[in-house]
Design goal:
Radius of gyration: 29 Å
Oligomer: single chain
CATH architecture: Roll
CATH topology: SH3 type barrels
Strand content: 25-35%
CATH class: Mainly Beta
Number of domains: 1
Strand order of the largest sheet: 4-3-2-1-5
Number of strands: 5
Structural class: alpha+beta
Largest sheet: 5 strands, antiparallel
Distance between the termini: 86 Å
Order of helices and strands: HHEEEEE
Helix content: 40-55%
Number of helices: 2
Amino acid sequence: MNFLILAQANAPQPPGGSLVGMLPMFILILLIFYFIVYLPQKKEQKRKQELINSLKKGDKVITAGGIHGIVVGIKENTVLVKVDGEVKLEVSKSSVSLLEN
């Protein structure tokens, strides 16, 4: 009989903790996610929007596809980019990724 009581006392307990114990870990994970993923992405999105809003004729740009050219015209959602001689491409403003120096 004593053996049965000892066996039950030493039996492994099922995993699980209180919700209060897991809450700080959950908050820590959310903070890490915010500082590592969300904040840098938000800054990059803001930088790109400022770049798009500041485009003007004569700017040297690089598109997301790697095309280098000079802005010769700007419309509401597109930019006309001169790439070589008289070759001009109309690209989406969102595809402009960099301004060249």
